């Protein structure tokens, strides 16, 4: 079956190359993972790394929790779906007030490393530079100012989770924020989160966190909200 698929898919690719007029020595066709090629790739990567021309670093990727693999932007379908916006109170560590943030994914608060406001937003000028005590986790995170924040969207306060959102990732790099990944490869809450949520599927964790926030008086309101949801084109997984 695998060879049948190779003839079908691989044949399509090489057929396209021929139509484009490329003229390699087709008798030397091999698989990318064949031993000699793998050795050559390893050799080049190690050499470039030793010369300081390439380096390893943490990057955000589209991750399919069913296939357990990263997928390219081309393999992600972003479609508008009905969802919700949760408004949550984040108290200032010094007890001088609170900020209300709105989010479509309350479970990601476990990985928050800042709350961002627009530098010109007069409502929040006095909060910039202060620390917030993150509900549920108790971690202290800073209030930062960034031009990316849309003052008109939600409350104008944005929770920043650099390990789980591409825009947050960019902001995290600009402000040197830590990246806290809270998910396992199959999208369950990992051991970097409070013990009560470890091992829960992310959507079960969402329900539990919302219930806990409500019990603490930290949940302000829930409202319907349409949002773009990214799904893997093979599995349909979020």
Secondary structure layout plus pairing:
Blueprint lengths: L1 H19 L14 H16 L11 E3 L4 E3 L4 E16 L6 E6 L10 E4 L13 E3 L6 E6 L12 E3 L5 H9 L27 H15 L2 E14 L6
Parallel strand pairs: 5-7
Antiparallel strand pairs: 1-2, 3-4, 3-9, 5-8, 6-7
Describe the overall structure.
Helix content is 25%, strand content 24%. The protein is α+β, with helices and mostly antiparallel strands and 238 residues long. β6 (131-133) and β7 (140-145) form a beta hairpin. The longest helix has 19 residues, at 2-20. The model has no long low-confidence stretch (mean pLDDT 94).
Summarize the structure.
It is built from 4 helices and 9 strands; from the N terminus they run ααββββββββααβ. It is α+β, with helices and mostly antiparallel strands.
* Distance between the first and last residues' Cα: 29 Å
Helix content: 10-25%
Overall body shape: elongated
Number of helices: 4
Q: How many distinct beta strands?
A: 9
Could you say which structural class the secondary elements and strand pairing correspond to? alpha+beta
